[in-house]
Amino acid sequence: MSLSTKRSILTARAGRALALIALLIGLLFLSPAASQTGASAPGLSLDPGSFSPNGDGVRDFLVVRPTGLRDEFLRPRDWTLEIRSGANEIVRTFAADHRRIRASRAINNLYLPGSDDLRPLALFDEIIWDGRDDEGQRVPEGVYQLTLRLQLPDNGGFVESQPAPVIVDTSAPELQVSAPISLLVRAPGSGPSLRAAGERLEIQQTARSDAGTRYDANVVGPRGTPIRERSWDDSLPERIFIYWDEIRTEADEDESIAYGDYLYRISAVDRAGNRSQAEVKDLLLAPRDLRMDLRADEYRFSPNGDGSRDQIQLRPAYINQAGNALSRSPLAATIAEHVLEVVSTDLQTVFYRKRGSGAPPESFVWDGRDDAGDILSDGLYFVRLRVTAGGESIATLNKSLWIDTAAPDADLSISRTSIRPDGDGEEEYLKLKLDFDDPSGIASWNIRVLLTPTPNARVDVVGDFRRLYRTFAGTTGTPPDEIYWDGTSDEGIPCESLEKFTIEYEVRDRAGNLARSAARKIGSGVLFRPVSRGRPALYSRLPAQNYFNESYGLTDQGEDALDEVLSRLSRYGSYEVIIENHSALPGREESNLEKTEQRARSMYEYFLKQGFPANRLKYRGHGEAELARDGRTEFASYRNERIEIRLQLPQPQTQP
After folding, report:
1. Where are the beta strands (DSSP E) in 462-547?
2. Is the pTM of this model over 0.70?
């Protein structure tokens, strides 16, 4: 045999070997136990792609939905959704709910479902992620990857989605604005602006934010009307100019209306929904040279006696040719007399006048009253300062003042009055929507969820208390998006069964007026949570809310609570039930153990009285041995002095 023939045979054998290996690898990946990722695998839709879980109501939550679903994906044997950090560490896992729930009546089980007629496991429609890890703590900023893994029915192996990235970003854009030239002088009847230096106001602005940020700016005129709007995407010009002819045109060429003080306001919103705002006040357009101005921190106030911005403080300012305030001015030493006046919008009626000799004080305080002592009605007014210096009369511009004593128009809508966040996919969230409006603009808003349980009869253990549980708040003046609340506290503590909450809101406008809501009552239902993720064993905790009397028997409220538990247990016919009672730390250890045993016995007897099968029921009292919360605080005692219902599947009987 020739050498070339031997080489051909060896090459053919090697090729067949490689082909066999390739075939085995292919069979391995196509076998039921293999995992597939690709076109045949499901995908994930993330809305939005960047979010900001900071509680301001704007893009606080990520909505995750599966896509590309075949029929076999809808009823998997199992599924998990993993969220990993940039370091590839799992920070949050959502898993299929393997509890055994009786199926609802349908065509195929028109009569009452049997004890083994169970609801099949299904893939989720959507999952809401609030940016917290499995311990309930907020995750740091960064890029996270979400992956869905399915185990197919009939032992069909696993499929896995491509990792879907999402950005967690809670840092608001940084904005800085200033006006190097804040005074523009144009004599009445002057021709159009030459759009050159000296013919314009100048705004300098800087921003630090990622690409994808939207910037919106406007100029607000003396009468509160936005007259110039500009927008930029991604980046912000370092300088912009405001020209006389643009403003005069916007004011319908009425020069008397065009003269006055202007405001430049800019807002920035990044891809994650973080917002920030900056503004420059006291931009002056004058018909003559100015040497003085009147300034305030906020030109809106509310003289209604509620203690919030009831007065306005006006500060005289000596200015240079660019309109910037001077620390010292020779004019002050020459002033013989000063007069402060508040006038109508047509500049004809003087409502308030304050006269004095010498230079004006460092500030004037006005309480919104006219010379007769009556508070002026809501609306726009002008204030001006005139001084006499060296025989010359010098006046400021007419500055805009707004009196606003009306509370903001606000309303809170709540999707339901109950919440049941226990992982079974039913009533997992409340949706809150706060809407508001006010002519002065909104300065801040907040929504507060307060835990307000019914006090125990034994107030030495758990008294009557209110605990601030969850807060949503914002300061940009923009109504928040729809807010999801999943029953967790600001610290990530989940709610328990049959707890009572009230929801309140406050909205404050820029004039200081406050709108408050009446308390809206909501509650949690009976919650059966998995003892461990993805396992069928369940538990429910009912914190102390006057469920027992001094003889350890059930009160009417205790019986009502157990009736709700029994109603919920009707869907769990496959389970054995263990009734437990637990004590908080206050009291003697021996007494606490005794009372929990007697309370557990009272609940056991009530279950039997209501017809619950005795062969599925046990009871225990644990005293203070198993605390739900550490410590002796009022909240810890309330959560520890509890009923606990445990559900477990029967153990298989062993043959002797």
Report:
1. 467-474, 483-485, 500-509, 514-516, 520-524, 529-530, 538-543
2. yes
